[in-house]
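[step 3/7] fold_predict: job queued, chain A
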Amino acid sequence: MFAFGLTKSFERLPTGGSCISNTLINGCVARYNTKVNENFFNRKRELVQFTNAFSSPMPMLHVVLGPPSIGKTALVHEITRKKIKGKDQFSPLFINCRKGQFDTPDRVYDSIYSQFSPFFDKHKDFLKRIVGGQFSIGDVGYRLGERGATTSNDVTRLLDNISAHLPNWSIWNGNNIPPPILVIDEANMFSQLAENDKNLLKSILNWLVLNTKEEKRFHTVLTSSDSFFFNWIVKLLHIPHATPYVVGDLSKEEAEKYFEMHILPQYECKELEGKFDQVCKITGTRMMIIEMYVNEYKNSEGKLADSQFSVRESEYNWLKRGLSPKILAFKNEPDTPLWEAKDLIKTMDAIVKAEDQGYILADVLNKEIGEKKVESLIKYNYLHCRPTSRFANDIDVPPKKIGLTAMNQPSVCAMKDILEEEQQN
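[step 4/7] structure written:
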């Protein structure tokens, strides 16, 4: 048995969602695939902060949170693949749960083995000296395609063998070899495995804790767009075993540079030069939304009305549907909306009034409409919850308590439209 048992009952993990696609339109900067573009826009503070965190001699289980399409994956991949003076700083091992790589024992096994196998093969001479004996990748697991149906026991045995063949993090560092770091994108998709094999999921989470906090073998990074993911993790693993961070939007200064130096030249859109303040009121400082706006502006030959911007239209329609919550229940979703129209109106009013501040406190809205209703609004993507402000640089004076934000700036604009309509009725 691992040292850290999962003592609390298991609950289904929400997978979250968004009205906005995770795919950029003709994107060349902040992509969401596993290959980070070389022209990655430089978030200078986050790059330094996360590099330091991932380089700590005390391996941790890092949980990187943030709204959908904000650039979490691109940022983490940039950091873990970045060279300094021509030298790799990490040996990243990537698993992308968006591709359904954690829904069955067979897929879990292949996902883990396919990352660790080339890593072990690359460092086999070094590991022979450290582990001793005649080390080979065959000691770690089967070769892909050389086995029958995979069971949970096969996965557990693979995890145990990987642990047995990995030295302490300090040994990699002491030998000037980039240490391994495991990155699991959209880890809230663990819920797919939870529905099929709860015990295997518990074993995997225990294995992550064992190799980070206890045995100090490697850092692990879990990214998620789901507001409730960190709560789910700490419920299972206890608070000291995971550290949360938030990737926010760009600061306004960074977003203006991105707009003027990257996006406008890409779309040959000189007529918007020097007009970022005007554009920012519509788009906010999220890279993907800025690019979508410029693309649509260009395609409309400069005739794009604010209300016609596609993200704003989608957010407006979603908010209007939220005023009739009984029709909103997701298919196969057991939890129906708990708020009433008046609760959403109060929420929109609070968000709009706090626009310059950038957030409202969860405690305040909980008292106003009730905690269960707030959680329901978050679940249905009317609000995004920030359990921490660690490493988020998009709010000048970040909250010291749990903060709530709109899903994006176009949503704030749509809220203003709806509140004005309500006042006229």
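[step 5/7] annotate
The mean pLDDT is 86.
The radius of gyration is 23 Å.
exit 0
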